[in-house]
Amino acid sequence: MRLPLAAACSLGALTVCHSAPPAQAATAKTAPTADQNWVIQTESPTLANTVTTTPPEMLTQPESMALPESTPQALAARLPASPASITETPATPITSPTNYGAAALTTTPRRLTATPSPTTTPSSTTAKQATPPPPSAAITISEPTAQIVAQQSTPKPSEKLVRPKSAIAPPSQPVDPPADAVKPSRLNLPNFVIETNPVSQTPTTPVTSPSENIAPPIANDNTNNIAPAIKPTTPTPTGQNSSLAADLAVQVLDVKITGVDPEIQKILRDRLATRPGRQSSLNQINQDIATMLSTELIGSASFTTAISDNGISVTFQATPVTVQNIQLRNAKVLTTAVASEIFKDQLGQAIQPSKLDQGVRAINQWYLDNGYSLSRAIDVEPNRNGSLKLTVKEGTIDELKIRFVDEFGRTVDDDGKAIQGKTKESFIRREIKSKQGDIFQVSRIQADLKNLYQTGLFINAGVTLEGDADKTSVVYNIAEGANRQANIGGGFSSDTGIFGSATYNDQNLGGTGNQIGGRILLGSKDLQFNGKFTRPFRDSDPSRWGYSINAFRERGISRVFDDDILLANGDQVREGKIGAGIGLTKSLGNNWNGTIDLGYTRTSQRDGSGNVVQFDNAGNPLSLSGRGIDDQVTLGFTAGFDQVDNPSNPKSGSRLQLSTEQGLPIGTGSSAANKLSANFTQYVPVNIFNKNQQNRDTQEVFAFNVQGGTTIGALAPYKAFTLGGVDSVRGYGQGELGIGRSYIQASAEYRFPLISSLGGTVFADFASDLGSASLVPGAPGQDRNRPGSGFGVGAGIRYNSPLGILRADWGFTDSGTNRVQFTIGEKF
Question: Annotated region Disordered: where (predicted)?
Answer without folding.
Answer: 106-180
